[in-house]
Amino acid sequence: MNKADLLQRIIDTLSFDLDVAQRAAQTAYEAATAEENIAENKYDTLGLEASYLATGQARRMEEIRQARAAFQQLVLRDYDPARGIQISNLVTLEAENGSCQRLFLGPEGAGLKIGQGEQLVTVITPRSPLGQRLLGKGEDDEVSLDLGAKHQSFVVIEVS
């Protein structure tokens, strides 16, 4: 999968997620404002809980909308060894145990997974611990990070 196809699949996935979040927010809003959910006493909190849910869904919807906009505006750049890994690079890492993972360094949408099996690509951002360590690195460079008591080490196998 090339980067242009990957970018379009990320935008499509975020659009789908936004649609799902919009429907969930609308459902929560309707529950919060439904006449049958008006509190009858101080212990009746169904309407209040639904309003909290609607607020959370609205926030999630805005996060997805912003992520989608960031990807729609993203200019894909080829890997430049002089600059090292930057946003819009597709990176393949090999762990100490020999397993490989493909990562797309994006502006938003951390944790989004596109594809399956060996074609699986995970979106990370420069704000993540791994993303921070990858910036400026090149092919064959080693990247290490400590997450709690767990030490992980990777080698950059390929960048595009």
TrEMBL record:
Keyword Secreted: no
Taxonomic superkingdom: Bacteria
A Gene Ontology biological process term: regulation of DNA-templated transcription elongation
GO molecular function terms attached to this record: DNA binding; translation elongation factor activity
Keyword annotations from UniProtKB, A to Z: Elongation factor, Protein biosynthesis
Keyword Nucleotide-binding: no
Entries under InterPro entries matching the protein: GreA/GreB_C_sf
Name under which the protein is recorded: GreA/GreB family elongation factor
Source species of the chain: Pseudomonas alkylphenolica
